[in-house]
Amino acid sequence: MVSLLVELHLLEARTDAAILPQDSARALFRQQQKDVYWRYEVTDSAFVQSYRYYAIHDKDLDEIYSTVVDSLSLREARLTTPGSPPPHP
Question: What is the arithmetic mean of pLDDT over 25-41?
């Protein structure tokens, strides 16, 4: 779940950074979101169901997002530090 959420947040950031009209950006995000789900072998409905489960269990979701934020922060630090190894996909 953590890796999937990291991928989705990175996708969202890339889509937001693209200079596209809002409807085009939304369509691009949704198409690429389907690709991410396919790579993780999960359907959109299975993802939503899992996310709802974790949302009901606040402590679990807090722990998951703590790891997501740490992962994204580490990627950002690697991108801003010269000579650091590239982030892993």
Answer: 95
